[in-house]
Amino acid sequence: MSPQSQNTGRRPELRHDPVANRWVIFSPARAKRPSDFKSKSPQNSNPGDNSSCPFCIGNEHECAPEIFRVPSDPNDPNWKLRVIENLYPALNRNIEGPCEEKEDMGVPARAISGFGFHDVVIENPVHSVHLCDMEARDIGQVLLAYKKRIQQIASVESIKYVQVFKNHGASAGASMSHSHSQILALPIIPSAVSDRFEGMNEYFKKTGKCSLCEVQAKELLIDESTHFISIVPFAATYPFEMWIIPRAHSSHFHEFDCEKMVELGGLLKLMLRKMSLQLNNPPFNFMIQTSPLQVKESELFYAHWFLQIVPQLSGAGGFEMATGCYINPVFPEDAAKVMREVNLPVEG
C-alpha cells in the first residue's frame, strides 16, 4: 500500500494546544507511514579531531571561565561535568546597572540593554560520548547542574526567565560536536513563554485544573516511571515531538526534588534511545519549559514545567513563520504507537 492510499481514509484535523495556546494542523496526506518517518541526516558520531576540541578533558585552558564542575574540586583533573561561560555569549553578564528601556530611537519600539547570562554545560569529558550513552545517574548529574545554575542565577533581580536547551547535530543548531547543553538567562519573558503561561491560565480559568496534571490519554503515552510520564502531546507542533512531565504538580524545574533527577535522567535517556532507533538517529533539540522566575502565588496553581524533545525531521516553511500555526504530518497517537514499539527498559 502506498503512503498516499494509506492516508486517504484519514482527514486533516486542527487541534488546539492548551499549553502553548496555539493551533496545529494535522495533515496526514503530506506524510509517509509514521514508521517510515526517519531522519535523512542522522548524527551517527561526534566527528572531528578530539585533540583540538576545547570541551575535551585536558583542554580546559581553551575554554571561557569555569563556573563550577563535578566533582567540585577545581584542581581535580578527572572531572565528570563542567559549567562554563559561553565564549560567544548572546547576552553580556558584565553590563553594570539595571536594564533600562530606551524609547528615543525614532521608531515605535522599545529596547533594553543586553544584560544576561549565557552558559555552557559540558555533559561529559569524553568527546565520543553522547548524552544517551551515559548512565542514568550521570544524566541526573547534568540535570542537577541545570538546577544548581538556575538557583544561582535566580538571585539576580533583573533576570526574568532562564531557558535550558540542548542542540544535537549541526542542523539542530549545534556548533560543537562534543555533547553539551546551554543555559540562557534573560531580562525579559519571551513571547512563546508568555503564550504558554497564558494558555495554561486559560485552561485553569475554564476548568479549575492544571492542563498538564490532567493528561491521561493512554493513546498518547510512550512510557512512564514512578514520578514522570512521557507522551506525544495531543497537539504536537512537530513530528514525533515528545514531552516528559512530572506527575506531581511543579511550577519550576529548579525547585524540583534532587532525589528524582536520576529517575528523570533514566526516562530522558530512554526517550533519546527510542528516538534514535526509530528515526535513524536524527538531530534534535530538547528544552526545559519552566515558569518565569517571579510569579504570583495564584499563578503557581496552573504553571507546570515539562521537558520537550523535538527531533529535526521537517523544517518550518513560510506558512508557519507567517502564522505561528504549524503543519504536522503525523498524528500524535500514531507517533506514540511507533515509540512504544521500541522495547527498552527505563534505567535509574
UniProtKB/TrEMBL annotation:
Positions binding Zn(2+) in this chain are C53, C56, H127, H178
Q: Where is the active site?
A: H180
Q: Name what cofactor the protein needs.
A: Zn(2+)
What residue ranges carry the coiled-coil annotation?
Answer: none
From the UniProt entry, list the residue stretches annotated as the region Disordered. Answer: 1-51
State the Pfam families in the record. Answer: GalP_UDP_transf (PF01087)
Swiss-Prot/TrEMBL GO biological process terms: galactose metabolic process
Instruction: Establish whether keyword Transmembrane helix is in the entry.
Output: no
Q: Does the keyword DNA repair apply?
A: no
Question: What keywords were assigned to this record?
Answer: Carbohydrate metabolism, Metal-binding, Nucleotidyltransferase, Transferase, Zinc
Any GO MF annotation of the entry: UDP-glucose:hexose-1-phosphate uridylyltransferase activity
Query: Which residues belong to any copy of the Galactose-1-phosphate uridyl transferase N-terminal domain?
Result: 12-190
Per the record, where are the segments of Polar residues compositional bias?
A: 40-51
How cofactor binds (record note)? Binds 1 zinc ion per subunit.
Feature: compositional bias, Basic and acidic residues:
10-19
Quote the SUPFAM superfamilies the UniProt record gives.
HIT-like
User: What residue intervals traverse the membrane?
Assistant: none
Q: What is this protein called?
A: Galactose-1-phosphate uridyl transferase N-terminal domain-containing protein
Q: Give the classification, highest ranks.
A: Eukaryota, Viridiplantae, Streptophyta, Embryophyta, Tracheophyta
